[in-house]
Amino acid sequence: MRQAGRYMKSYQIICEKYPSFRERSENVDLVVEISLQPWNVFKPDGVILFSDILTPLSGMNIPFNIVKGKGPVIFDPLGSAADVDKVREFNPEESVPYVGEALTILRREVDNEAAVLGFVGAPFTLASYVVEGGSSKNFTKIKRLAFSQPKVLHSLLQKFATSMANYIQYQADNGAQVVQIFDSWATELSPVDFEEFSLPYLKQIVDSVKQTHPDLPLILYASGSGGLLERLALTGVDVVSLDWTVDMAEGRKRLGHDIAVQGNVDPGVLFGSKEFITNRINDTVRKAGKGKHVLNLGHGIKVGTPEENVAHFFEVAKAIRY
Hints:
It is a single chain. By secondary structure, this protein is α/β, with parallel strands linked by helices. It is built from 15 helices and 9 strands. It has a 7-stranded parallel β-sheet with strand order 1-4-5-6-7-8-9. A two-stranded antiparallel ribbon has the order 2-3. InterPro entries: UROD/MetE-like_sf, Uroporphyrinogen_deCO2ase_HemE, Uroporphyrinogen_deCOase. Keywords: Chlorophyll biosynthesis, Decarboxylase, Lyase, Porphyrin biosynthesis.
């Protein structure tokens, strides 16, 4: 659950001590500490690397920062073929050695009591950030590029696809046992445009990783994915993560039983009573059916969520028996 809010209070203290995103993300000891905090407290089945999907950008010659209260800011947004030509393919060993170090330590610390998860951003989502200059509400810049200069966007997407495949392989080689791909903004595309600007590159990543790491489970998440579920399954990933806007039973039916599902309790449920939380968890599990289901929230945990309710979520989940 995005590290259970990255264990809310202590993470806030750490951010105050290390206000720079780079200070936090490149400090191996700090990365390990933050990654382990929710596991030490709640003992979930997974430990998620503390990082960000935009971490590779600096190594691709795309300077950025994450600004408090504003989010990611790309200093020089891309908008032309000349801009894309300056983008380098990502070399994780060279650019983010601290990620590999942190994963190796996490595997040793967890000692197979939980799975260590890495993650990457999907090509279209990363492209959206670097073209828009950060977060966006209407995605006009990336769509203008897609529909007026598609070759330029395809060139950028190809660089991200190759780079993210390399990054997944690097994470796996250094300790990640599962990797989740976040295509958060893919659902801003119509189905026909998803098939052109996202699906081929996701498939390329999956195919490339499966050639070198055939047993590495890959998870795909896209916010608001109800209109694209069947297409998400075409990527070849092992697990599709559903957000709470999709009924779990309907999602399972549409995806088929050959693919696993993850999710999809509404994070807002954790503001409810413990009885309400219990009922929603049981409803989700019942609708998912037996097997091939990773119980989770349908998105990251919300700021201000009562910690005792987070603990209750895990207690109920661990007690479920089929």
